[in-house]
Amino acid sequence: MKPLQRCQNGHYFDSDKHSACPFCGIQELNVDVRRTMAKKQEAESSGEENPIPVTRPQQVPGNVGGENKTVGMFKKHLGIDPVVGWLVAVTGPEKGKDYRIVAEKNLIGRSESMDIAISGDASISRENHAIVSYNPKKNIFRLFPGESKRLVYLNDDEVITPEELKPFDVIELGETKLQFVPFCCEHFQWKKEEE
After folding, report:
1. pTM of the entire predicted model
2. How is 161-184 classified by DSSP, letter by letter?
3. Are strands 5-6 and 157-158 parallel, antiparallel or unpaired?
4. Higher-scoring residue by pLDDT: 62, 44
5. How far apart are the two ends of the chain, measured CA to CA in Å?
6. Maximum distance among all alpha carbons in the chain?
């Protein structure tokens, strides 16, 4: 087994899975957009289905409508999964860390396969402890209990049915409290580009 790599801030991470420390985030991002777009166009012209790698897991429901993947509407129209809000750890082992929320469902758990992976809190279920969703048609955020036997709380109340999230609500899972910070709200909402 390959040893973990240590970043300049003292965090250990698997360099086979991450090109930089996932705890520190990307400090300096130097992307040559022209070269990336040229690679994308070259790959598309050669017939590759997914020329640019994505960072979120995609659902593969089988052959529905002649396509092999389910892709969110924002990702399909904008080419990315734009941020719609954040969860910020205000207590717990990962205090101070933020987690991006994107449109539609965001699964929360310890596993790296989760959309929101809180790997430092062993009292959080590995998969599907809770779900945060954003409905772009109604511009509403909701918190759902997951499939785990463990509980999730919203502002100290147990969540047993979907609850609407309001700015700065506090979600509690295990030893972690997450404060909800919306980006999409009555003042801003992502719009699909006209085709």
Report:
1. 0.60
2. S-EE--TT-EEEETTEEEEEEESS
3. unpaired
4. 44
5. 49
6. 54
Give bridge partners of residue 59 from the DSSP assignment.
70
pLDDT in tens, 106-127: 999 999 999 999 999 999 999 9
- Cβ neighbourhood burial of 98 (10 Å; 0-12, 13-18, 19+): middle
Q: Which domains, from first to last, does the chain contain?
A: 33-70 (no CATH), 83-182 (2.60.200.20)
For residue 157, list its beta bridge partners.
154
Residues 146 and 109: beta-carbon distance below 8 Å: yes
Helix or strand or coil: residue 75?
helix
Q: Are 187 and 103 in contact (CB under 8 A)?
A: no
Rounded CA separation 177/9 (Å): 24
Structure tokens at 52: 């640019």
Which amino acid would we find at residue 127?
E
Cα gap 141→181, rounded to integer Å: 10
Q: What share of the chain is helix, strand, coil (3-state, %, to 5)?
A: 10, 30, 60
What distance in Å separates the CA atoms of residue 159 and residue 152, rounded to the nearest whole number? 6
Q: Which residues contact 13 (CB under 8 A, 6 or more apart)?
A: 4, 5, 7, 21, 22, 23
The answer to which of 139-143, 154-158, 183-187 has the lowest mean pLDDT is 183-187
- Name the residue among 108, 113, 178 with its Cα closest to residue 144: 108
